[in-house]
Amino acid sequence: MLIGRVFVMPKQEVLDPQGKAICQSLHALGYAEVDDVRLGKYMELRLRGEDAAQLRARVDDMCRRLLANGVIEEYHLEVERLPGAAGAR
Predict the structure, then answer these.
(1) Residue 54: phi, psi to the nearest 5?
(2) CB atoms closer than 10 angstroms to residue 41
(3) Integer CA distances (angstroms), 16 to 4, 30, 51, 52, 67, in order
(4) What is the pTM of this model?
(5) pLDDT the model gives residue 83
(6) Domains of the chain
């Protein structure tokens, strides 16, 4: 069993109103050291199969087709074997 981790963030040039609101709230609470906040999404996918390269390509396709909006978001993904899974090293 493998796990896919997908991190989706707004592109730098895209306004992030939720991130701005969080940043302002942190400042109001006295956390003046916070310079900026960007709010994104994190997803974990449990994947059947043993070929990590093939599954990584499939997760990349999922990101391009559904999980991330390529117009306003960018993504980073990881695929690795679950600790304790059969065949884990």
Answers:
(1) -65, -45
(2) 13
(3) 26, 21, 37, 33, 18
(4) 0.84
(5) 79
(6) 2-81 (3.30.1280.10)
Q: How far lies 85's CA from each of 40, 46, 53, 65, in Å?
A: 29, 11, 17, 29
User: Over the Cα atoms of the chain, what is R_g?
Assistant: 17
Helices within the chain (DSSP H only):
17-28, 52-62
CA distance linking residue 30 with residue 35, whole number of Å: 12
Please report how many Cα atoms fall inside a 13 Å half-sphere around the Cα of residue 35, on the Cβ side.
0
DSSP state of 82: P
The mean per-residue pLDDT over the stretch 1-22 comes to 97
Q: Contact at 8 Å (CB) between 33 and 80?
A: no
In single-letter form, the type of residue at position 34 comes to V
- Sole residue written with tokens 């390529």: 70
